C-alpha cells in the first residue's frame, strides 16, 4: 500500500534540500522516516503578523515594518569587522537597521528603496533592529503567504530556514499519503481538521485559528492512539477470558493468616481486598492497579490475595524490578507464610545451572506455590503448572508489553500491579487505561509521621551528626543516600564512595557498609542481610534502596545533595524509614540550590502526603519522568499536558471504550490499526 511509503527511511526519498548531510543531522533528532519528518512538529512559532508603524514599536518585540531607506552607511570596526547601517522611515518616524559582517546587504539595500523588514527591536541610544530579515517591496512581499513561521528543535548545524524548506517540500510531495486515521464520528463530533490539512497547518499555519485547530487535532490523535493501544489489549483479554474459570472459594488459610497478623488491617486495605475478592469469585479476569502511598500496606493486600489463590489450587508469581527487591520480598514472604505450609521460591538471573533446571521442573510440576523474581520470570523456558495470579511491584518500571508476556504464562492471567508513586485517581484511570484502579489512601494505625528537615549548612550538619550518634546509641539504624557511586569531575556532588569514607571517619567504632549498583548481586544481598539483621549501624548507598527495602529498625534517612533528586524519588527514599514502632527522621542535605530544587525541598519538609507530593511533582517535572518513558507511552504525548488536558484524555478514553464495545474490539480503519501497532511495536508498520 502507498501508506507504507510513509515509513521509508529519509535516505531513500528524493526531497529537495535533503542531502546525506541533512539526513544525518535529522537522524540525530530521531527523525529517520518520512512519517517522522511529517510529524516533527514545531516546538514554537514566530508570529510575523505584527505589522506596525515605526512610532508604535516597543523595545524587545518582534515586528514587521514597511518604509523607505532614507540613509545608509558602511563602517569598519575593530578586528577587521564591518557594520552596515541603514535608516528606515515611514510617515510616523525613523528606525535604525544594523547588520554586522554581511557582505550582501550593501548590494541589496540602497537609499530610496521601499523595504519590508522583520526583526526584534532594541532600545539603546535610539530604537534599532540588529540583523533584521528584509525584502524589497518591488521584488516580493517579506513572507510567501504565511506570517506564522515554525520553530523546530534543531542542531546547531541544521538551520531553521533549511529545515522549514525540507519539511515544506516533504508536505508538498508526500502529504497526500497521510490517510485519515481517526473515526468519522470523532472527526464530525469535534469538528477536527482532516489529517492532510492539519499537517499543513501545524507546520505552516495560514492564521492563528488554523494553527490552534491543527494542534488540537494532533493532540486528540496522540491521545487516541495511546488509549486505543492500551484499551484494545484490555478488551481482548477480557473477551477471551470471560467466565473461563471458577474458584472453589476456600478461605481457611486466609482467615488464619489474617488472625495471626500482629496488627489490624486498615479500612482501606479491607475495601481493596473485597474489590479483588468479588471479581475473582465472579470469574472475572483481574486486571487491577493497587495504588498507595509508601507504607500504606499494598504488599500485605497482595499476599492475602496470593494466599487465597494458592488455597484454591493455583500458583502465584511476584515480579519486582530489581534482584535486591525480589530478595526482600522473598525473605519477607517466607517469614509471613512460615506456619501455612506454602512453598515460596526465588527465581532471578543469579539462579543458574542445575539449581535453576531443578526449580523450573518443580514450577512446571506445580510443586512450587509462589515464585518471586525479576524480569527473568518472562523468559520462555519458565512454564507454570497453573499460574492464577501475578503481582507486579513498582508498576512504572514495567510496561504494557512486559505485563502481557508474563500474563500469557497463566491459565487465568489475573494481574495485580502495585505502585507507590501516587497520582490522582482520575489521572491513573486514563494513563493506566488497561487497569482498574484501587487506592489505599490510609496508613496503618500507630504509624508515626516522619519528621523531615532540610540541612542547609555545616552547622546544621554537625548537629545532625550528633543526633545520629545519639539514635545509634539507642539501637536505631541509618540510611545515607548519595546520587552518584564515585566522584565526578564535572558535578559538585558527594558520591557514595566519598560519603562512606567521610562517615567512617565521623562515626569511628560503628559498623558502616557501602552498597551500590555496580556490586555483584551476591555482595549486595550479603550487605542488605547484615543491615536487615541489625548487624550494621549505617548503610551508605545509591538509590538501589529506593523501593521496597523494609528494615523497621532503620529510623533515619540522610539524602545527600537532595537537589539532585526529583520529588517522587525523595518521597520514595524517605519511605524506607518510618516502618516500625519508633519515630523516624529524614534529613535533606543541600547547599547548592535553584528555584525548582528549593520548591521541592520545601514541599518535602511540609508534607508527607504522597498524593499531594505527586501533584506537585507533575507540575515541576515532565510526565515521562513520573510514569516512566517507553513503558507507559506517556512520554509520546508531545502536544498533551496530562494535567491541563485531563478532560480531553478522559473524553478520548471513554470514546475509545464505547468504540471498542460497539465494534466488538474490531478496528476497521487500516490506517488507524497500523498507527496503533507502530506505537506499541517500536515503529514497525502493520501495513506491508
Automatic annotation (TrEMBL):
<dbReference type="Pfam" id="PF17191">
    <property type="entry name" value="RecG_wedge"/>
</dbReference>
<dbReference type="InterPro" id="IPR027417">
    <property type="entry name" value="P-loop_NTPase"/>
</dbReference>
<comment type="function">
    <text>Plays a critical role in recombination and DNA repair. Helps process Holliday junction intermediates to mature products by catalyzing branch migration. Has replication fork regression activity, unwinds stalled or blocked replication forks to make a HJ that can be resolved. Has a DNA unwinding activity characteristic of a DNA helicase with 3'-5' polarity.</text>
</comment>
<comment type="similarity">
    <text>Belongs to the helicase family. RecG subfamily.</text>
</comment>
<feature type="domain" description="Helicase ATP-binding">
    <location>
        <begin position="279"/>
        <end position="440"/>
    </location>
</feature>
<dbReference type="InterPro" id="IPR014001">
    <property type="entry name" value="Helicase_ATP-bd"/>
</dbReference>
<dbReference type="InterPro" id="IPR033454">
    <property type="entry name" value="RecG_wedge"/>
</dbReference>
<dbReference type="GO" id="GO:0006281">
    <property type="term" value="P:DNA repair"/>
</dbReference>
<dbReference type="GO" id="GO:0016887">
    <property type="term" value="F:ATP hydrolysis activity"/>
</dbReference>
<protein>
    <recommendedName>
        <fullName>ATP-dependent DNA helicase RecG</fullName>
        <ecNumber>5.6.2.4</ecNumber>
    </recommendedName>
</protein>
<keyword id="KW-0547">Nucleotide-binding</keyword>
<dbReference type="InterPro" id="IPR012340">
    <property type="entry name" value="NA-bd_OB-fold"/>
</dbReference>
<keyword id="KW-0227">DNA damage</keyword>
<dbReference type="GO" id="GO:0043138">
    <property type="term" value="F:3'-5' DNA helicase activity"/>
</dbReference>
<keyword id="KW-0233">DNA recombination</keyword>
<dbReference type="GO" id="GO:0006310">
    <property type="term" value="P:DNA recombination"/>
</dbReference>
<keyword id="KW-0378">Hydrolase</keyword>
<keyword id="KW-0347">Helicase</keyword>
<keyword id="KW-0238">DNA-binding</keyword>
<dbReference type="Pfam" id="PF00270">
    <property type="entry name" value="DEAD"/>
</dbReference>
<dbReference type="GO" id="GO:0005524">
    <property type="term" value="F:ATP binding"/>
</dbReference>
<keyword id="KW-0413">Isomerase</keyword>
<dbReference type="InterPro" id="IPR045562">
    <property type="entry name" value="RecG_dom3_C"/>
</dbReference>
<dbReference type="InterPro" id="IPR047112">
    <property type="entry name" value="RecG/Mfd"/>
</dbReference>
<dbReference type="InterPro" id="IPR004609">
    <property type="entry name" value="ATP-dep_DNA_helicase_RecG"/>
</dbReference>
<keyword id="KW-0067">ATP-binding</keyword>
<dbReference type="InterPro" id="IPR011545">
    <property type="entry name" value="DEAD/DEAH_box_helicase_dom"/>
</dbReference>
<dbReference type="InterPro" id="IPR001650">
    <property type="entry name" value="Helicase_C-like"/>
</dbReference>
<dbReference type="GO" id="GO:0003677">
    <property type="term" value="F:DNA binding"/>
</dbReference>
<dbReference type="Pfam" id="PF00271">
    <property type="entry name" value="Helicase_C"/>
</dbReference>
<feature type="domain" description="Helicase C-terminal">
    <location>
        <begin position="460"/>
        <end position="619"/>
    </location>
</feature>
<keyword id="KW-0234">DNA repair</keyword>
<dbReference type="Pfam" id="PF19833">
    <property type="entry name" value="RecG_dom3_C"/>
</dbReference>
Amino acid at each position: 500500500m502507498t501508506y507504507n511509503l510513509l515509513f521509508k527511511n529519509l535516505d531513500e526519498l528524493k526531497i529537495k534540500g535533503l542531502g546525506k548531510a541533512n539526513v544525518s543531522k535529522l537522524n540525530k533528532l530521531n527523525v529517520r522516516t518520512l512519517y517522522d519528518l511529517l510529524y516533527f512538529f514545531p516546538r514554537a512559532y514566530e508570529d510575523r503578523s505584527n505589522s506596525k508603524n515605526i512610532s508604535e514599536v516597543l523595545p524587545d518585540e518582534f515586528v514587521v515594518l514597511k518604509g523607505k531607506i532614507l540613509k545608509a552607511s558602511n563602517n569598519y570596526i575593530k578586528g577587521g569587522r564591518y557594520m552596515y547601517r541603514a535608516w528606515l522611515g515611514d510617515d510616523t518616524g525613523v528606525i535604525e537597521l544594523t547588520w554586522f559582517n554581511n557582505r550582501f546587504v550593501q548590494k541589496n539595500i540602497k537609499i530610496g528603496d521601499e523595504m519590508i523588514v522583520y526583526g526584534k527591536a532594541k532600545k539603546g541610544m535610539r530604537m534599532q533592529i540588529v540583523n533584521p530579515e528584509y525584502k524589497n517591496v518591488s521584488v516580493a512581499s517579506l513572507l510567501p503567504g504565511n506570517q506564522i513561521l515554525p520553530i523546530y528543535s534543531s542542531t546547531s548545524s541544521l538551520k531553521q530556514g533549511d529545515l522549514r524548506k525540507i519539511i515544506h517540500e516533504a508536505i508538498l510531495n508526500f502529504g497526500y499519503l497521510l490517510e485519515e486515521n481517526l473515526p468519522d464520528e470523532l472527526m464530525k463530533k469535534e469538528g477536527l481538521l482532516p489529517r492532510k490539512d492539519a499537517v499543513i497547518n501545524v507546520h505552516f499555519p495560514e492564521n492563528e485559528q488554523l494553527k490552534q485547530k491543527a494542534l488540537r487535532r494532533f493532540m486528540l490523535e496522540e491521545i487516541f492512539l495511546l488509549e486505543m493501544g492500551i484499551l484494545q489489549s484490555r478488551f481482548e483479554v477480557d473477551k477471551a477470558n470471560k467466565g473461563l474459570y471458577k474458584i472453589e472459594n476456600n478461605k481457611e488459610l486466609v482467615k488464619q493468616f489474617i488472625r495471626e497478623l500482629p496488627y489490624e488491617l486498615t479500612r482501606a486495605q479491607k475495601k481493596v481486598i473485597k474489590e479483588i475478592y468479588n471479581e475473582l469469585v465472579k470469574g472475572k479476569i483481574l486486571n487491577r492497579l493497587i495504588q498507595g502511598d509508601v507504607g500504606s500496606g499494598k504488599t500485605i493486600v497482595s499476599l492475602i490475595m496470593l494466599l487465597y489463590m494458592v488455597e484454591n489450587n493455583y500458583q502465584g508469581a511476584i515480579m519486582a524490578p530489581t534482584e535486591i527487591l525480589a530478595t526482600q520480598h522473598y525473605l519477607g514472604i517466607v517469614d509471613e507464610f512460615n506456619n501455612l505450609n506454602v512453598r515460596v521460591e526465588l527465581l532471578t538471573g543469579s539462579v543458574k545451572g542445575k539449581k535453576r533446571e531443578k526449580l523450573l521442573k518443580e514450577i512446571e510440576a506445580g510443586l512450587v506455590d509462589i515464585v518471586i523474581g525479576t524480569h527473568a520470570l518472562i523468559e520462555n523456558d519458565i512454564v507454570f503448572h497453573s499460574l492464577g495470579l501475578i503481582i507486579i511491584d513498582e508498576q512504572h518500571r514495567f510496561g504494557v508489553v512486559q505485563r502481557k508476556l508474563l500474563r500469557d504464562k497463566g491459565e487465568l492471567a489475573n494481574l495485580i500491579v502495585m505502585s507507590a508513586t501516587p497520582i490522582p485517581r482520575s489521572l491513573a484511570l486514563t494513563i493506566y487505561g488497561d487497569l482498574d484502579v484501587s487506592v489505599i489512601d490510609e496508613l496503618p494505625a500507630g504509624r508515626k509521621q516522619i519528621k523531615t528537615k532540610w540541612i542547609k549548612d555545616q552547622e546544621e550538619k554537625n548537629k545532625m551528626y550528633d543526633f545520629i550518634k545519639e539514635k545509634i546509641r539507642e539501637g536505631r539504624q541509618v540510611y545515607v543516600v548519595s546520587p552518584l557511586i564515585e566522584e565526578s569531575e564535572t558535578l559538585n556532588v558527594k558520591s557514595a564512595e566519598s560519603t562512606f569514607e567521610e562517615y567512617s571517619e565521623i562515626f569511628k567504632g560503628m559498623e558502616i557498609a557501602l552498597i551500590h549498583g555496580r556490586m555483584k548481586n551476591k555482595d549486595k544481598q550479603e550487605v542488605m542481610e547484615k543491615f536487615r539483621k541489625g548487624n550494621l549501624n549505617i548503610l551508605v548507598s545509591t538509590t538501589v534502596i529506593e523501593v521496597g527495602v523494609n528494615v523497621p529498625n532503620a529510623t533515619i534517612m540522610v539524602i545527600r545533595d537532595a537537589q539532585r533528586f526529583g520529588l517522587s524519588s525523595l518521597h520514595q527514599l524517605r519511605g524506607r524509614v518510618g516502618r516500625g514502632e519508633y519515630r523516624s527522621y529524614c534529613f535533606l542535605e543541600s547547599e547548592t540550590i535553584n528555584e525548582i530544587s528549593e520548591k521541592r525541598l520545601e514541599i518535602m519538609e511540609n508534607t508527607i502526603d504522597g498524593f499531594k507530593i505527586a501533584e506537585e511533582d507533575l507540575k515541576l517535572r515532565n510526565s515521562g519522568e513520573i510514569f516512566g518513558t517507553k513503558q507507559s507511552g506517556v512520554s509520546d504525548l508531545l502536544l498533551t499536558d496530562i494535567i491541563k488536558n485531563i478532560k480531553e484524555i478522559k473524553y478520548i478514553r471513554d470514546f475509545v471504550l464505547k468504540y471498542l464495545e460497539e465494534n466488538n474490539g474490531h478496528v476497521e480503519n487500516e490506517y488507524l490499526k497500523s498507527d496503533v501497532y507502530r506505537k506499541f511495536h517500536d515503529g514497525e508498520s502493520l501495513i506491508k
